[in-house]
């Protein structure tokens, strides 16, 4: 008998998709398409690949040929996760009589667009504090010229504030890149990170982020989200440099061409925008305070 009633939900994260086992079916989301595979249409789930990291969902078939059955494959970075997924799904498949005539399971598979992934976004205390500071700056930029009757200056401030915020974001990124580069150059430690997961974006157009795990000098495990230089042509391993004092401050090591592009962007975009943003703030408040 099937143990569907006690079946827990199981999720297998693959490199290009996600497979979810529900009470009556396996939901396979890949490239924005969801395939709903009923358990009664599954013949077996087998583990394949040189490293046993691929789960192949083999559908039932009414053909006598072994290779006629449809197969849905999903490759993961964890052989243990693949083995567990295959075991649980195989345990959930309804038992069949060996003499029972098989049907074509592919006709039961339904495809549809994958539902969008909505991630709840909560502001951290630091983000709330920064938001409060900018709200105060905005109000101050209106009050000061307002007290002097400079309505035109107030309109300029309100119209340009969004551009000012964008400039502040670029300035913050530029400063942060400089700090990270300086700190990691002085005391950074480079280790190998191993691919463990893939986080999908909040919309279908979002590219998503690869997640890598690495261990610091104390043996504690950490995660890095991003990319980096591949180790030994293995896409599951990259070089990660982290700050031993703050392991969450980590970057993926890049090749020489990528480093050159980053330096050029820092010099010809980040620095000029930072200077222009600071100059605009000083000139505006000088005009608001001392202008005629």
Task: Give a topology summary.
Layout: E1 10-13, E2 17-21, E3 25-30, E4 33-38, E5 42-48, E6 54-59, E7 71-75, H1 79-92, E8 110-113, H2 125-147, H3 151-187, E9 189-199, E10 209-215, E11 221-225, E12 230-231, E13 234-243, E14 246-252, H4 256-290
Antiparallel strand pairs: 1-2, 2-3, 3-4, 4-8, 5-6, 6-7, 9-10, 9-13, 10-11, 12-13, 13-14
Helix pairs in contact: 2-3, 3-4
Question: Can you characterise this structure?
Answer:
There is one protein chain. The chain has helices spanning 79-92, 125-147, 151-187, 256-290, and strands spanning 10-13, 17-21, 25-30, 33-38, 42-48, 54-59, 71-75, 110-113, 189-199, 209-215, 221-225, 230-231, 234-243, 246-252. With 292 residues, it is of the alpha+beta class. The strands form three sheets. Strands 9, 10, 11, 12, 13 and 14 form a six-stranded antiparallel sheet that branches. The longest helix has 37 residues, at 151-187. The chain is elongated and about 95 Å long. The protein starts with 9 loop residues before the first strand and ends with a helix. Mean pLDDT is 85; it is low at 1-8.
């Amino acid at each position: 008998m099937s143990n569907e009633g006690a079946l827990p939900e199981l999720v297998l994260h693959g490199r290009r998709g996600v497979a979810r086992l529900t009470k009556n079916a396996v939901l396979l989301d890949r490239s924005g398409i969801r395939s709903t595979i009923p358990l009664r249409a599954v013949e077996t789930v087998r583990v394949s690949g040189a490293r046993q990291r691929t789960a192949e969902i083999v559908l039932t078939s009414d053909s006598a040929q072994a290779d006629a059955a449809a197969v849905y494959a999903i490759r993961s970075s964890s052989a243990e996760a693949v083995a567990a997924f295959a075991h649980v799904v195989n345990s959930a498949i309804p038992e069949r009589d060996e003499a029972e005539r098989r049907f074509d399971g592919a006709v039961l598979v339904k495809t549809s667009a994958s539902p969008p992934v909505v991630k709840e976004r909560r502001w951290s205390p630091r983000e709330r504090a920064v938001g409060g500071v900018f709200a105060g700056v905005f109000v101050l930029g209106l009050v000061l010229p307002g007290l002097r009757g400079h309505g035109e200056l107030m309109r300029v401030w309100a119209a340009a504030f969004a551009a000012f915020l964008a400039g502040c974001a670029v300035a913050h990124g530029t400063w942060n890149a400089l700090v990270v580069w300086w700190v990691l150059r002085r005391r950074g430690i480079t280790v190998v990170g191993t691919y463990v997961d893939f986080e999908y974006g909040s919309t279908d157009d979002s590219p998503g982020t690869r997640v890598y795990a690495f261990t610091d000098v104390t043996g504690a495990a950490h995660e890095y989200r991003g990319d980096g230089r591949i180790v030994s042509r293995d896409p599951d391993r990259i070089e990660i440099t982290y700050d031993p004092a703050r392991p969450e401050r980590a970057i993926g090591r890049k090749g020489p061409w990528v480093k050159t592009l980053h330096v050029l962007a820092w010099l010809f975009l980040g620095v000029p925008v930072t200077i222009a943003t600071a100059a605009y703030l000083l000139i505006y408040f000088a005009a608001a305070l001392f202008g005629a």
